[in-house]
Amino acid sequence: MKASFSGEVATYYARHRRGYPPEALDALVGAFGLSAEDTVVDLGCGTAQLSLPLAARVGTVIGVDPEPDMLVLARQAALDAATVNTVWMLGTDNDLPALGRLLDGRTIGALTAAVAIHFMDRDALVRASYRYAESSVRYDAPLTVDDMVGGVFSALSTDRLPSTQGRATFAAEVRDALGGRDEVTERVRVWLQFGTPD
Ligand SMILES: C[S@@+](CC[C@H](N)C(=O)[O-])C[C@H]1O[C@@H](n2cnc3c(N)ncnc32)[C@H](O)[C@@H]1O
Asked: Is 151 in the pocket of ligand 1 (CB under 6 A)?
């Protein structure tokens, strides 16, 4: 089953998917020595879960995604947060060479591909870097039944989304399985993989 990241699925994604904790941003900024001088390309930016906190720490973020509905919501999230240093580009990893030519002469501080590298030509991206490192950050965070259920719907293709009744039934079943609780604590682990030039 493949996610389509369009229509209602994009809305579920924006509403219910977790962002990234400050520790993950610290690790990213530290690994690449990012500063307000840097432009970062957030490939597969989706609805800007990483792009926006990243924009708070660097010069400019270019969010790239092939799904127009995700990009519209990413841009809206940037407007809502009064973020003025993001731009949004409809495209895929295949468009990186053209983007590179467009940015000729400018330093790209980093290219991020958060929860998206499995959609791309991973080998080509990894070949472009020489030093590879991996780390993770852990944190506990509340997870509501609403976010659990919405998170599942955000990973479906639009034609697989249940009816309104089916969605309500699923939410009720999840709540029942949790003994009527509406919220649990999730132990989250975010894996970070870095590829940097020598
Ligand atoms: C699971 S979402 C991740 C969104 C966001 N980066 C995050 O961390 O939540 C994956 C995103 O990758 C995008 N995508 C799929 N194929 C892609 C490709 N070949 N190049 C760039 N992005 C792609 C999808 O449209 C989707 O928005």
From this structure: no
List where CATH 3.40.50.150 sits in the chain.
7-138+189-196
Beta-ladder partners of 87: 62
Q: Domain 7-138+189-196, what fold?
A: Rossmann fold (3.40.50)
pLDDT tens readout for residues 93-139: 999 989 989 988 677 899 999 999 889 988 887 777 667 778 999 99
Ligand 1: centre distance to CA 66 (Å): 8
User: Cα(first)–Cα(last) distance of the chain, in Å?
Assistant: 39
Q: Whose CA is nearest to atom 4 of ligand 1?
A: 46
| Secondary structure (3-state) at 89 | strand
pTM of the full structure: 0.93
- Closest ligand 1 atom to Cα of 13: 9
Dihedral, 27, 19, 113, 65 alpha carbons, nearest 10: -150
Query: Is the Cβ atom of 17 under 6 angstroms away from ligand 1?
Result: yes
